[in-house]
Amino acid sequence: MTLIPTPTERLARARTDLRLGLPVVLASGDVRALVLAAEGISADRLAEARALGPATLAITSWRAETLRARPYDGDLARLKLPGDAGADWVASVADPATDLAHPMKGPFEAGREGAADLHRTALRLAKSAHLLPAALVVTPVTADLPGLTVLDADATAALLDQPVPHREVVSGRVPLSVSEKGRVHVFRPGDGGEEHFVCEIGRPPRDKPVLARLHSACFTGDVLGSLKCDCGPQLHSALAAMGREGEGVLLYLSQEGRGIGLANKMRAYSLQDQGFDTVEANHRLGFEDDERDFRTGADILKRLGFSSVRLMTNNPAKVRMMEAHGIAVTERVPLAVGLNPLNEKYLDVKAKKSGHIL
Questions:
Q1: Residue 143 CB: number of other CB atoms within 10 A?
Q2: Is 229 among the annotated ligand-binding positions?
Q3: Does 214 appear as a known binding residue?
Q4: Where does GTP bind (predicted)?
């Protein structure tokens, strides 16, 4: 019956539920787990969840390293909740905002018995919803839980591994200051995620390498003119170069904060104010250095008819990822602009820790 949600549609619904503070259910065979995002968990829902069975707080190994907790499962730690643990305890463990003011958060008892697959999928769900990578997991749950979104755990893990297909919704002519021959394409991902945009300058031939820029959305830099990064200058410099050549393609990808979302990016900025660099801030939050999915850019380029690019980037990883996903990079075009006294350290970390060529 076509009216029944597909696994992909259930996954999109689950992301929304978690962002609203609602629990979802992960089912694996006869075992069910109740999952709540740690971010924004209420005292009432925490109490109701704990009444259903044994509860653990799943955090990534990066966050566990900060807290000096044992990640027995390698990439994550399953922290057992103390008997008196409330919503404030969950929030303080999940969010590093008060780590320096209140450093003594342990000792923690980390679980090591049984498989951690459900906890791992719960963390990935929270990440995909642009929430802090921490999740309360209650398992096994035997009570009837009507109205909650139920996900098959194996199918969900497989979906989170797969590249997301995109379709073009519409395109329209947009005269720009760099070229009157501008056109904007809107691409919608098949998993219900945020739309991505493409600015095409002129009519570049599809059988030749196109001058291209994969630009991750940066509200603070692109819109507000933030001096903490070089994103805005890179965006405008790339468009200007395409305007001078008379053709090019700029992909504006909704992967704010290297894929962690604007709220988490602001959390990282707050940690930078405490003295941590951009990579250290991401790790304290529980994220990898870079959470972006470069398959998105490759998929959209292919759907536009391009198979090779002259890629405007300072990041060799982008070159490798494009080539790994079927887009030939015939030239890396440097884009070293935007240096100022307020982002000098940020760019230095980009070069030394993330391999950017600056």
A1: 10
A2: yes
A3: yes
A4: 213-217, 234, 256-258, 278, 313, 318
Kindly report, residue by residue over 185-197, the tens digit of the pLDDT. Answer: 999 999 999 999 9
Say what the pLDDT of residue 356 is. 86
Decide if 290 is catalytic. Answer: yes
Q: Is-contact 216 194, C-beta < 8 A?
A: no
Q: Where in the chain is the domain with CATH 3.90.870.10?
A: 7-160
Give the active site residue among 292, 293, 303, 310: 292
Residue 215, beta-bridge partner list: 252
| Residue whose entry in the numeric block shows the structure tokens 């982002």 | 343
- Does residue 231 have a known ligand-binding role? yes
Q: Are 59 and 119 in contact (CB under 8 A)?
A: no
* Active-site position among 73, 230, 290, 299: 290
C-alpha atoms less than 13 angstroms from C-alpha of 104 in its C-beta half-sphere: 0
H/E run at residue 135: strand 134-138
The response to whether 234 counts as a known ligand-binding position is yes
The helix or strand, by DSSP H or E, that contains position 169, with its residue range, turns out to be strand 166-173
Average pLDDT over the chain reads 95
pLDDT band, residue 104 (cuts 50/70/90) = confident
CATH 2.60.40.10 fits 166-255+292-354, yes or no: no
Contact 171, 186 (CB under 8 A): yes
Select from 3.40.50.300, 3.90.870.10, 3.40.309.10, 3.40.50.10320 the CATH code of 7-160.
Answer: 3.90.870.10
Task: Name the segment(s) of the chain with CATH classification 3.40.50.10990.
Answer: 166-255+292-354
- pLDDT at residue 348 greater than cutoff 70: yes
Q: Using CA atoms, how far apart are residues 288 and 292, in angstroms rounded to an integer?
A: 10
67: CB partners within 8 A, 6+ apart: 59, 93, 105, 106, 108
320 annotated as belonging to a binding site for a ligand: no
Q: Is the pLDDT of residue 45 over 90?
A: yes
State yes or no: pLDDT of 345 exceeds 80: yes
Is 292 one of the annotated active-site residues of the chain?
A: yes
Is 156 annotated in some ligand binding site?
no
Residues 6+ apart with CB under 8 A from 283: 62, 65, 66, 289
pTM: 0.94
